[in-house]
Amino acid sequence: MRIAIVVQRYGLDVHGGAEAHARVWAERLAARHHVEVLTTCARDYLTWADFYPAGRAAINGVQVQRFPVDAPRDIEAFNTFGHIVFGGPHTEEQELEWMRQQGPYSSELYAAISAQSDDFDLFIFMTYLYCTTFFGLPLVREKAVLVPTAHDEPPIYLRIFKQLFTAPRYIIYNTPSERSMLHRLFPIAHIPGREVGVGVDIVPSAQPNYEADPPTLLFIGRVHPSKGCDQLYEDFVRYRKATAGDQQPLLKLVFAGRADMTLPEHPDVEMLG
After folding, report:
1. Which keywords belong to this entry (predicted)?
2. CATH number of the domain at 2-195, please?
3. Which end is more exposed in the chain, N or C (fewer Cβ atoms within 10 Å of the end residue's Cβ)?
4. What's the pLDDT score for residue 207?
């Protein structure tokens, strides 16, 4: 089978949940199928500025096609416009403009998807939230598989996403709860789909280089307000103050992942990076 995976960024040095998801699938599927990744030249998810050269490359045995972004994102202007869209009444045209500004918008990528529509049996679109899926999937809807990686977050309630979620031929969910949420929000019960994981590589046991003492609350992932890390920190500090005099084991909060925000220092909070 010939499979195209469409994702907003791709590379060994790209950090992101959907991007990692795409790379794991691409590398594992490539063992039995012809797999190509169609993506942009961006590495930074804030600006979407072109970083990688346009054209073809091979990464861990997977063929990758990169296309330039039409224009980098002005993150301050985007955030300001987001207050309009999510702060009160707005039009569907404003939602579409928000999506265009959300990015990464690549005219050459969409042209390539259309031009290569007969070259692949399936087009797998990773994550609902970006232009690569929103504008790319409808071009090949009869061959499109949507992997939403959706959360209960403000964008999922935008009206424009009804047209996206009702377009694919198949939907792959990460969890039953994601499936239930999306079936509640969109009329997609008739679209075939199922929950699919990515698999786990079993590695030999090794001595841990970090010992959790006292008991530890561990966050793994990118440390950023959009992931709720600021709220987690505030809730933890409030909990520690409320239980300071209790006769119970102390609790630490440990963040493991790239830090894209700064948190105040606290004796019971540790950043591993």
Report:
1. Transferase
2. 3.40.50.2000
3. C
4. 63
